[in-house]
Structures are given as structure tokens and as C-alpha cells.
Write a structure and sequence with these properties.
single chain; mainly alpha; 21 helices; globular; binds 4-fluoro-L-phenylalanine
Length: about 450
């Protein structure tokens, strides 16, 4: 047992963990999903629901996942069994499979981003919407999409094979500051556009109360919150297992959730002014999964050389954000195989990567399939969040207690978190899950 614990790697510092966790959280979900879902319906109502879900539901889930990993000191596959017995092995299996499912299409979208980045850099931007659609068609089909998918996976695999400290922590430490600098500069630039104010209004202030009752908006807000914070699928269980004994879990969770939400909001403050300045409102309202890859290049294409520079920065940013998330998605199944079968890291990495590549081929070849995978995985995350809070709140509440250090967080916060995990999160998440499931099925059947 002791030797097993001493073999587990640990983050070198608190900052190392925070950057890795923020790296996992900030990704395509913030830069592509947030604006896409906000524009799909809801606008400000979506943003409000999203923030409420993060504060009320996701923070306790975050702490519960970290506590599970830190207490069990095991991979996401084995942690639920270690604390709760073999009845809980399905939760471990969910944690093993869900990241594989997400990574299989996540790396396809990373391929689109890389292709758009290189196209902007080497050849320039499309002249109008129809050229942009044609360009996206070429990016998202044929051999280039398989190339993008495979190269993104290879890059991810190379980083994960270097380990937690030398791979994941090192890459996130160098990439996250760059990401924040680009994001900040782009937000300022977007604020100088003529349609900036109109963009902010559409995104943040046009409040349609009916949207709060719209199941699709509720589903989008739940999915976005869980996806964006990388919750419900064992990532934070794995990352929590590399934390030192002294860590203050609520504080860490709050820090990561705040930074992630800030990035989602900033991405909206960049994309909405672009949409409205360059007359792309229509392309937002009938947005598809490829919206960002069509409307952003179209808008920037009409802004001359500066537009091109911004496009290069934007898609570079998207790729940097995505790679720090894809490594977290790969780390979960890899550490699980290492834990369960005593495989070495390299062997686990390449086994999983090859499997993910094959699983991703249907999504690479058809954007509708990719959309279906995305919808199903998003609902699985919500379900995973429900199970985690139920598990930590009802099945092993003492373990949760022991991981919330009252001397550090204070009696009130500790009580609040335990109360939320036990009484509020399971029913609220179950509600979000059922609404999302019905909405998904309704969409499929209609
Ligand atoms: N949070 C990442 C994003 O917003 O793009 C993606 C992601 C990573 C989702 C890890 C889920 C996950 F477990």
C-alpha cells in the first residue's frame, strides 16, 4: 500500500495544480461552446442560468470529485470502488469511458482549429460567407480532417506520456499565461469594434424571461457548465489524487471555477462583437456546430490584414486551450489502466490513443455524428455529476468530511458544502439530467 502511494506522482505546487485544472477546464467548451450555446437560444438568460448552475451545483461537485480522488489516492476507475465497494464499479467505468468518448471528437475539432489556423497564416481568410462555408466543408471532411484528428492525438499522447509533472504540469504552466495574454488582447480589440456595444447587449443584456423555461436553454446551461468545468467524468478525481494532503479543496475549486467562467465570458465578449460588427447575426441564429469556424473567419476576412492577424491569434488560442484540455481527457483512462493492470505509462497512452483515434473516425467523417456524440457525452457528464454528489453525500459522507478541512475553510463553508452535496445537488442535478434527456430525445424523434 505504502509503495503504491509513494509511486503516485504529485503536483509540484499548488499553482501547478491550479494551472493544470484551469488548463483542463478552459478549452473548446469556453471558446466554441459558450458562444455557440449562448447564441443558440437564451443569450443573457443562458448566461444567468449558467452562472447560477456553476455557483450552486458545480462548486460542490468540484469539491466532491477532488475529495474522492484525494481520499482514495487512486485513479478514477478504481477510486469509487476503493471507497464504496464493488457496487460502485459502474461509476468507475463511467469515468473510464466518458473521457474516451469526448476525446474521440474533441481531437477532431482540434484538427479543424489547427487547419483554420494554418490556413489563416499561410493563405488568408475567406472573402464572404459562402467561401467560408466552402472552406469549413474542406476542413471538416476528407483526408485533412483525419490528419488533424490524428496529429492532435499524437501531440496529446506525447505530452501525457511524459507524466504528470514533466508532461501535463509543465505544458500547462507554459501555455496558460500565453492563453490569458492573447485572450486579454483579443477582448480589448473586440471592444474597439463598431458593433461591440450591440454585441455585448445581445450576449449579456437582452434578457428573454421565457428562455428560463425553455428546456433546450436549461439543457444547454447544464451541459455547458459540466463540460466547461470538466466535471462529472473523473478528471478532477484523477487530478485530485495527485494533490498533497494539505490542500484546501474548496478554495482550489473556487479559483478554478472562477477563472473558467471568466474565460467563457471573455470569449463571448470577443465573438459577439465580431458577429454583430460584420453582419453575421443570421449565421449565429442558425448556428451549427461549425459556427465559429465559419462566422469568425468570415467576419475577420473583411477586416484586412489586422483581421487576419486576429484570426491567427484566435485560432492559435483555441488550439492552446484545447491541448491543455485534451491531455486531461487522456490522463484519466491512461492512469486507470496503469492502476488497474499495472501497465506502464507509455503502453497505456498509446493503447488508449489508438482506440480513441478509431472511435473518432465516424465523427471526423460526419459533423452530424460528431454532434450526436457531443450531445450524448454531455448528458453523461450531468449523470456522472449526480452520481458523484450522491456517492460523496450519502454513501461515504465521512470521507467528504475528512477532506473539507474546517480549520482552513471555516465552519460555515464546510457546513454549506456538505449540506449542498447531500441535499441540494443530487435532486437539482437529477432535474437537469431529466430535462436534458427529454430534450435530447425530443430532438431525435422530431
Ligand atoms: N473543459 C474542456 C472544455 O471546456 O473544452 C473540455 C473537457 C475537458 C470536457 C475535460 C470534459 C472534460 F472532462
Amino acid at each position: 500500500m505504502d509503495s503504491k502511494i509513494s509511486q503516485r506522482e504529485q503536483w509540484t505546487s499548488k499553482l501547478g495544480f491550479i494551472l493544470a485544472a484551469v488548463g483542463s477546464a478552459v478549452g473548446l467548451g469556453n471558446l466554441w461552446g459558450f458562444a455557440y450555446r449562448a447564441s443558440q437560444g437564451g443569450g443573457a438568460a443562458f448566461v444567468l442560468l449558467y452562472v447560477l448552475i456553476v455557483l450552486i451545483v458545480c462548486l460542490p461537485v468540484f469539491v466532491a470529485e477532488l475529495a474522492l480522488g484525494k481520499n482514495a489516492m487512486a485513479s478514477s476507475l478504481l477510486a469509487p470502488v476503493k471507497l464504496g465497494g464493488t457496487n460502485w464499479s459502474p461509476l468507475g467505468v463511467l469515468f473510464f469511458l466518458a473521457p474516451i468518448g469526448i476525446l474521440s471528437y474533441y481531437s477532431v475539432i482540434m484538427g479543424w482549429a489547427a487547419d483554420t489556423f494554418f490556413h489563416s497564416l499561410l493563405f488568408g481568410l475567406p472573402k464572404d460567407l459562402s467561401e467560408a462555408k466552402e472552406f469549413f466543408g474542406s476542413v471538416s471532411s476528407g483526408s485533412s480532417v483525419l490528419l488533424g484528428h490524428s496529429l492532435s492525438l499524437v501531440l496529446t499522447a506525447l505530452i501525457v506520456s511524459s507524466g504528470v509533472k514533466r508532461g501535463i504540469e509543465k505544458i500547462t504552466k507554459s501555455f496558460m499565461p500565453i492563453l490569458f495574454i492573447i485572450l486579454f488582447m483579443l477582448t480589448i480589440w473586440a471592444g474597439s469594434l463598431s458593433g461591440a456595444w450591440e454585441g455585448y447587449q445581445t450576449f449579456l443584456f437582452k434578457f428573454d424571461f421565457d428562455q428560463l423555461k425553455n428546456p433546450t436553454t436549461i439543457r444547454n446551461a447544464f451541459s455547458q457548465a459540466f463540460f466547461s468545468l470538466s466535471l462529472g467524468i473523473g478528471i478532477m478525481v484523477a487530478y485530485g489524487s495527485y494533490l498533497s494532503k494539505k490542500s484546501n479543496l474548496p478554495k482550489l475549486s473556487f479559483g478554478v471555477a472562477s477563472l473558467d467562467t471568466l474565460v467563457g465570458l471573455m470569449a463571448g465578449l470577443i465573438t459577439f462583437p465580431i458577429f454583430l460588427t460584420f453582419g453575421l447575426s443570421d449565421s449565429i441564429s442558425d448556428s451549427t456546430i461549425g459556427a465559429l469556424f465559419i462566422s469568425i473567419p468570415t467576419g475577420l476576412g473583411s477586416a484586412g490584414i489586422l483581421g487576419r492577424i486576429v484570426a491567427i491569434a484566435f485560432f492559435g488560442l483555441v488550439y492552446i486551450a484545447a491541448i491543455t484540455s485534451s491531455v486531461s481527457l487522456l490522463e484519466v483512462p491512461v492512469s486507470s489502466l496503469m492502476d488497474k493492470f499495472r501497465f506502464d505509462r507509455n503502453k497505456s497512452v498509446w493503447l488508449v490513443a489508438i482506440f480513441v483515434f478509431i472511435l473518432g473516425i465516424p465523427s471526423a467523417l460526419d459533423t452530424n455524428t460528431l454532434g450526436t456524440f457531443d450531445s450524448v457525452c454531455n448528458i453523461l457528464l450531468i449523470f456522472g455529476g449526480f452520481l458523484v454528489t450522491f456517492f460523496m453525500g450519502w454513501v461515504v459522507p465521512k470521507k467528504l468530511d475528512s477532506e473539507i478541512d474546517v480549520s482552513k475553510v471555516g465552519v460555515k463553508t464546510a457546513r454549506y458544502l456538505k449540506f449542498m452535496t447531500k441535499w441540494i445537488c443530487p435532486p437539482l442535478i437529477a432535474f437537469g439530467f431529466l430535462i436534458s434527456l427529454f430534450d435530447l430525445l425530443k430532438g431525435w424523434l422530431s
